[in-house]
Amino acid sequence: MKIIIGLGNPGKKYEQTRHNAGFMAVDFIAAKLGIVWQENKKLKSTIAKSHELLLAKPQTYMNNSGQAARAILDYYKMMPKKLGLFATKDSDLSDHLIVIHDDIDIELGQYKISVAASSAGHNGVQSIINHAKTKNFKRVRIGIKNEVGVKIPTEKLVMQNFSQEELAIVKKQLAKIAEELL
C-alpha cells in the first residue's frame, strides 16, 4: 500500500492558505480517483482510501503532523521493528510513504520531489521525521514563494490565502503532481 499524506491545517479558514498546499494536493488526487474522504479519529486524520492507496489529511494541525503519520504507519504495520518491539531508527519508508507539503523556498508554480531530505525548517515535516524516527521517505515540495517582492515574515506568508491567479497556477501544478505520483 502507498500512503500519501498531505500537510495542512484543518478548518475552513485555512482551506486556501499557502500552508495547505498539501491538503489541496491530496484533495485533487482523491477527486481524480473518485474516492471519498472520511474522518478517522484513530488515525488522527481524514482519509480517502482505494485498494492500493491511502490519502490522509492529518487533523492535528501542521506542527503535530507526525502524530497522525505515526498512527497511520503503525496501523498499517509499515514501521519496521527492531526485536519486534521498537520502531527501527532510520527505516527506509520511501517506497510506501509520500508527504506533500508547501515549500517557501520554491517558486510558485514549481515543485520538487526529494527523498531522505532534512525538514529545512518545515515544522510539519520535522514532526513526521521525529515521530517516524527517519527522514527516509519521499517528499513532494510545492512552491509557494512570494512573488510580490515585499518582505513578509514566513509565519505570516504561509497563512495567507492564495490569490485567484496564484490558485490557478497551483491547480496546474497539482495536476502534474497527481500524474507523476499515480
How many DSSP H or I helices?
Answer: 5
User: Taking strands numbered 1, 2, ... along the chain, how are they ordered across the largest sheet?
Assistant: 2-3-4-1-7-9-8
Question: Considering DSSP H and I runs of 4 or more, what fraction of the residues is helical?
Answer: 25-40%
Instruction: Could you tell me the CATH topology label.
Output: Rossmann fold
Query: Which stretches of 5+ consecutive residues score pLDDT under 50?
Result: none
Please provide the count of β strands: 9
**CATH architectural group:** 3-Layer(aba) Sandwich
Structural class: alpha/beta
How many domains? The number is: 1
**How would you describe the shape?**
globular
User: Proportion of β residues?
Assistant: 25-35%
What is the H/E order? EHEEEHEEEEHEHH
Going by CATH, the homologous superfamily would be Peptidyl-tRNA hydrolase
Radius of gyration: 16 Å
Instruction: Round the mean pLDDT to the nearest integer and report it.
Output: 93
Described by strand count, sense and barrel closure, the largest sheet is:
7 strands, mixed
Distance between the termini: 13 Å
User: What is the CATH first-level class name?
Assistant: Alpha Beta
